[in-house]
Fold Xanthine-guanine phosphoribosyltransferase.
Amino acid sequence: MAVHYATVTWEQLHRDARALAAALVPKMPFKGIVAVTRGGLIPAAIAARELGCRLIETISVVTYDEEEMGQPQIIKAPEAAGDGEGFLIIDDLVDSGVTARFVRECLPKAYFACLYAKPAGKALTDLFITEVPQDTWVLFPWDTAPLFVPPLVSNKKECAE
Ligand SMILES: O=P(O)(O)OC[C@H]1O[C@H](OP(=O)(O)OP(=O)(O)O)[C@H](O)[C@@H]1O
Ligand SMILES: Nc1nc2[nH]cnc2c(=O)[nH]1
Ligand SMILES: [Mg+2]
């Protein structure tokens, strides 16, 4: 299956996180936010600022072992969030849904929101902003850097000929 890339800039991410926060206003109040580290940290910080939320907990789940999908392992539990009642979980995206399913099992009463969702995992969310095709890899701003690209024609001499 062909793999496509969708590049998300910092500005786009900020817009999408603000849109997520706006869509969450009717679901307030929340006791706090649980960010799914690492990808959920920046979306959670932006949403927390918009929603006036200062209690931020984290959950860290590792699912990828090298290139292989392994069993989810919790390496940091969200102790302040109990069973999730009144808490908002934020991640950057759901893809297969493995992470979201596991996080929801840990915090069954929480509300799960993310920025981007692929078809295989979107039913595991309560809210997402943009759907992304399953064969598309989302490149977040923290995954990328501007790169020098050499010009098509390498010097003036060639241009004058
Ligand atoms: O729906 P899934 O197939 O489980 O994929 C989605 C998860 O994958 C990425 O996290 P990753 O495990 O790569 O770790 P990171 O957030 O620390 O980058 C992303 O941030 C989601 O949490
Ligand atoms: N950056 C990134 N991480 C992922 N983890 C699972 N799917 C994705 C994706 O599309 N992009
Ligand atoms: Mg993640």
Remarks:
- The chain has one domain: 4-160.
- The longest helix spans residues 10-24.
- The chain has a mean pLDDT of 94.
